[in-house]
Amino acid sequence: MQQIANIRITVLLAVMLVALSGCKGAQEGKVPRNTLATAEETVKAYCDLDGTGTRLTSETWSKVLPYIAWTEEAGWDRTIVIADYRITRTQKQSESAATVSVEYQVMGVLSGDYTPSRRTETIKFKVKKTRDGWKITDPDFMPPHVLLNPMIKHLEGTKNLELAEKLKEAPKE
User: Residue 48's closest CA among 59, 58, 36?
Assistant: First the structure.
């Protein structure tokens, strides 16, 4: 009797695993759709998410998927800490291609330790219209650009209090 119960449990678990793996497989091929109307709106949405630290963890980085052409994110050993960013120019190449320039006010770089490095950095985002909406195609290998307060919260959340304190004490201007 016990042996039959064990076999039933094993069969039930096997069926559940097959069902769950089928669901995951069906979702993996699906590209999230971007419903924003323009290349500029797409880059702004991406930069807003990046600025709040969305790309810092594997649990949240997928929120940027509707706006990017690649489907995997590198593990970053460096983060750019920013005071602000703004879109400075949108240049339309065609009805389905544009370049959107974003100017970042960089405060410093976080890479094991925090190194203050005030500068202005301009990044040109290449954006293409696809059947899934506007997608950023380049740069596809850019470290996260995170605003100061979300970066501090992230460090506090990961118990990296020493680095969080360094950022709190960093000059704001």
Answer: 36
